[in-house]
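Dear support,

I submitted the protein below through the web form. The confirmation email said the job was done, but the results page showed an empty box. After a refresh the structure appeared. I'm attaching both so you can tell me whether what I see now is the final result or a partial one.
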Amino acid sequence: MSVVEQVLTALGGLAAVVIAIAAACFGLFRVFGERWMAAKFDEKLAAYRHEQQKELEQLRFKISSLLDRTTKLHQREFEVLPEAWAKLVYAYSATIALTSPVQSYPDLDRMTPAHLTEFLEKSPLASWERNELSQASKKTDYYSDHIFWHRLNEARSYCRESYAYLRRHGIFVQAEIKEKFSTLDDLVWNALGEHEINAQMKLIPRITERGNELRSKGEALLKDLETIVQGRLWTSATNLSVD
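What the results page shows now:
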């Protein structure tokens, strides 16, 4: 074998060794590279899942808090609306009765002493008013003049309670419903104030604009508000039962 052939043979053997080593290195790189990439992927996937779980828990907490607040608001609304409605009805009814153009009173002048005494004991008149009435020549006139102020004070008391209650608890009532309460409340107060001025000033002819407005608009407004309140109460009851 010539020198050239020997050199080529040696180079071929060296190349085979190099190729073998390279193949082995590539194999090792491939095995460890795949493991490294898989480990990195698993690490990234775990971190992603962790972040997703955190976001999911935060979302669940927000939803739970929102549902809790909503339930509490419905509960308060469910408590406030019936009471506000009742107080407004008392104020409205007392004012309508007081400001009505047609008033009727018992004929005290025809009562027997025993009947008159029993009647006065049950009346809201003060003791001094009862004594004066007993001595009055026109007992029915005296009674109608004085009972008016007691009825006025009663109606005003109902109006104050209705107004104050809505002021205290109106935050639990939807704005459009609260506005309807306030509209009817204003009509009641205006009619009551007008009627009081008529009595104090003994005006003839009497001012009737506010009273007429209450009688012409009040009943329809009250009926409309009643329907709305009933709707809200049944909605709140359904929501509470579902929750």
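Response: this is the final, complete result; the empty box was a page-load delay. The chain has a mean pLDDT of 84.
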